[in-house]
Amino acid sequence: MVKITDVARHAGVSPSTVSYALSGKRPISEETRRRVEDSIRALGYRPHAGARALASSKSNVLALVVPLRAGIHVPVVMQFAVSVVTTARAHDHDVLLLTQEEGEEGLRRVADTALVDALILMDVQLDDPRLPLLRSLERPSVMIGFPADATGLTCIDLDFKAAGELCVEHLASLGHRTVAPVGSPPEVYVRRTAFAQRVVQGFTAAADRHRLSSVVHPCEASPAAARTAAERLLREQPALTGVVVHNEPVLEPLIDAFEQLGLRVPDDLSVTAICPPELAESVRVPVTSVALPSAEIGTRAVELLMRKLDGAPVDGATLLAARLTVRASTARRSLG
Question: Helices (H) and strands (E) in the chain — how many of each?
Answer without folding.
Answer: 14, 12
